[in-house]
Design goal:
The structure holds 2 protein chains of 2 kinds. By secondary structure, chain A is of the alpha/beta class. Chain A has a single domain, classed as P-loop containing nucleotide triphosphate hydrolases (Rossmann fold, 3-Layer(aba) Sandwich). Helix content of chain A is 32%, strand content 27%. In chain A, strand 1 and strand 2 form a beta hairpin. Chain A starts with 6 loop residues before the first strand and ends with a strand. Chain B is an all-alpha fold. Chain B has one domain. Chain B has 11 helices and no strands. In chain B, helix 2 packs antiparallel against helix 4, helix 4 runs antiparallel to helix 6 and helix 7 packs antiparallel against helix 10. The longest helix of chain B is centred in the last third of the chain and has 33 residues. Chain B is globular, with a radius of gyration of 22 Å. At the A-B interface, strand 1, helix 2, strand 6, helix 3 and helix 4 of A face helix 1, helix 5 and helix 11 of B.
């Protein structure tokens, strides 16, 4: 594989301070994800999966170590990294509940730099792929968790970023929807997109490579 | 599968971001998106929308009756301020609500995104964090502007407005709003870190009302407080606005000449925006460093 890895984690650690107490949320995590791979972070609750994803998504700075996305440091070159990634960090509370699913996607499509005349087509394409067309006109507050999970993946895929960072994308989805989401990720991986996801789902983890197991 | 026909568009090589727009184009598109989002959210609360319209009519009726009372009390008001009391009050309300919105919109936009849980995903998009916060606040400002414009248009149609729109008046209002936006950006930066209990807008808003010459002339204050009052942009904005309406005699003239006030306001607007963005950038950086971006 030529070019830098889509994600390179070099002894990434993160501690959080709660008053005088310091808690280590992530301890010296190493790993690489190449273009075209669907990589999984697995492990028990509290082992740092979400923290690792948030570091890659530029939302949390590592306390030590380095995280690179396509060779760019997530701390010093965060603006480049944000151009390259699509993020889904839990579906439930990340939508504007008063707005329709379509309006939510259109808003984020604008912020991702899509031209306005291309946005409806882009949304309809993703909605068809993830089977959420019939929900587009509904307010986000009226959607089930499983539908919100699909909507969240659609939002992350807007503009087809080069790296998808997904936290539990298969939580709350039924068996059919799980296969639908997995197929969508596989198609992107075949097209060269890198995917880094966290999951507790063995069905998903068994299909991912590489799989990084985080321990306490 | 239904998506099969769309496969050609999947993957980064066929990205819809084939020609990433420049930051200005992206900023304009994002600004429009925030305004659309704000209006769509606002009109989705139908009771609030109806009550807002009813309140607008109530305000017009109240101020038109008070205007009649003031007019019958004596003709001095129009000579002194160059406009009727109704116009005076409505202009004051418009400017005050715009300035207050500038002071509070950015902070409340950050707070709302924190509570909704939408802040993190917003901050993973392509625009720099301070720009996103500024645009989110601008969306709320646009609602205030639209409400104020509706009030003024309604007043013009129903009771008639006689506001002499002098350059001094307009520049005072614009500069004052910009200054308040700068303070508002700084307070949003503090909210990023402390979440609740932000002191900047509280202090500025309180001082403006107490010492800025809103309710009484500044020269009625004790000498030591007058010095403090002259350091406030509100004092200069009101002095300039009153000068602009031909009412310099009533302004108390404590804030100095109109040229001095204009210079002060221009300098304060530039400084306020610079400091506001710097504090906001600091707040975003600190929240990322401490890992508290998603906290509320």
């Amino acid at each position: 594989m030529t070019g830098p890895a889509a994600v390179a984690l070099e002894r990434v650690s993160r501690t959080f301070a709660y008053g005088r107490r310091e808690v280590c949320a992530l301890d010296s995590l190493c790993g690489r994800v190449q273009r075209g791979q669907i990589a999984a972070l697995v492990g028990a609750n509290g082992t740092g999966k979400t923290t690792a994803l948030r570091v890659v998504a530029t939302l949390v700075r590592p306390s030590s170590g380095r995280a690179l996305v396509f060779g760019r440091d997530v701390v010093t070159e965060a603006a480049f990294v944000r151009r390259a990634i699509g993020v889904s960090l839990g579906a439930g509370r990340s939508f504007y509940w008063r707005l329709s699913a379509f309006h939510n996607l259109a808003f984020h499509a604008c912020l991702r730099g899509l031209r306005r005349r291309r946005i409806p087509g882009e949304i309809l394409r993703l909605a068809a792929e993830l089977d959420i067309e019939r929900y587009l006109a509904r307010p986000a507050r009226g959607l089930s968790r499983g539908t919100l999970a699909r909507l969240s993946l659609a939002r992350a895929c807007l503009g087809e970023p080069e790296l998808l960072v997904l936290d539990e994308p298969f939580a709350s989805v039924d068996g059919r929807a799980r296969e639908l989401l997995w197929a969508a990720l596989e198609r992107r991986a075949q097209a060269g997109t890198a995917v880094l996801l966290a999951t507790h789902d063995h069905w998903v983890a068994d299909r991912c490579a590489p799989v990084v197991e985080l321990g306490p | 599968m239904r998506a099969a026909g769309a496969r050609g568009a999947i993957g980064p090589s066929a990205s819809a971001l084939d020609r990433p727009p420049g930051s200005l184009a992206l900023g304009c598109r994002a600004a429009a998106a925030f305004v659309r989002r704000e209006f769509a959210t606002y009109v989705s609360y139908r009771t609030k929308l109806v009550l807002g319209l009813v309140s607008l009519v109530f305000s017009l009726v109240v101020f038109s009756f008070v205007g009649r009372v003031v007019a019958t009390a004596g003709p001095g008001f129009v000579e002194r301020y160059g406009m009727s009391y109704t116009s005076y009050a409505l202009v004051g309300i418009f400017v005050h609500s715009l300035a207050s919105s500038g002071l509070n919109a950015f902070r409340s936009a950050v707070r709302r995104e924190q509570l909704q849980g939408t802040l993190e995903v917003l901050l993973t998009t392509r625009l720099p964090s301070p720009a996103l916060v500024a645009l989110a606040g601008a969306g709320e400002l646009s609602i205030t502007l639209a409400g104020g414009a509706a009030l003024m248009l309604g007043a013009a149609a129903l009771v008639g407005l006689d506001v002499p729109l002098s350059p001094a008046l307009v520049s005072a209002f614009l500069l004052y709003t910009v200054i308040m936006c700068g303070v508002g950006l700084a307070s949003a930066g503090v909210v990023m870190v402390v979440k609740e209990g932000e002191p900047i807008s509280w202090a500025v808003g309180g001082l403006a009302g107490l010492l800025g010459g809103v309710y009484f002339p500044v020269d009625m204050l004790p000498g030591w407080l007058q010095s403090g009052a002259r350091a406030l942009p509100t004092t200069h904005a009101l002095a300039l606005a009153r000068y602009g309406t031909g009412a310099q005699a009533a302004s108390g003239a404590a804030a100095g000449t109109s040229a001095g006030s204009l210079g002060f306001l221009v300098a304060a607007a530039l400084a306020s925006l610079a400091v506001g963005f710097a504090v906001l950038e600091w707040g975003c950086r600190l929240a990322r460093s401490s890992g508290t971006l998603s906290h509320y």
